[in-house]
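Most newcomers find our protein records easier to grasp once they have seen one. A learned vocabulary of local backbone shapes supplies the integers on the structure line. Here is such a record, shown just as it appears in the course material:
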Amino acid sequence: METATCTATKGRPREFCVDQALAAALRVFWTKGYEGASLTDLTEAMGITKPSLYAAFGNKEALFHKALDLYEAEKLQYMRAALDQPTARGVAECLLHGALEAQTSSSGPRGCLGVIHSVACGEEAESIKADVVARRASSQAALIARFERAKTEGDLPAHVDVQGLHSYLFALLQGMAIQAGSGASRADLERLVDTGLAMFPGT
């Protein structure tokens, strides 16, 4: 567990846990969005002063990028696990069921941090949106490559449009995130997952 020592009032050093502070910042960004999260919101949640935030993480933008790294590492593990599944259907099942568990977990706010920030529109958030879009493009490319392999192996029918299949799954994932953020129940999301998988090509 990494710690940082920053100078507090009256010149006395104060130590805090960087990991815990970053987790607190992630929750603020996830709940309020990048533009909606003020430095006061962040420092109060993290339990540190503004000078300590700058010393340990850089500015607000740098802090968000670090928080997004943490989000991907902790909350999107199922996406990496999905690519290792032996069949294309297994990939889809792992993705959709993983998203279901993530969206109905009590350990964090509902909705997807990536979806929230991919539609951010203020000038302040342009670099944030660009980073989120670039990360999503990388994930999409990996999924397309996995489905292309499935076609080559005969696991997916030859007529399947891999680009369209990948877009279909990502639309389901994004739709689940938006619905979860709007208060959809687990039963509602389970119904969406079941219907989505019923439409998936092959066996």
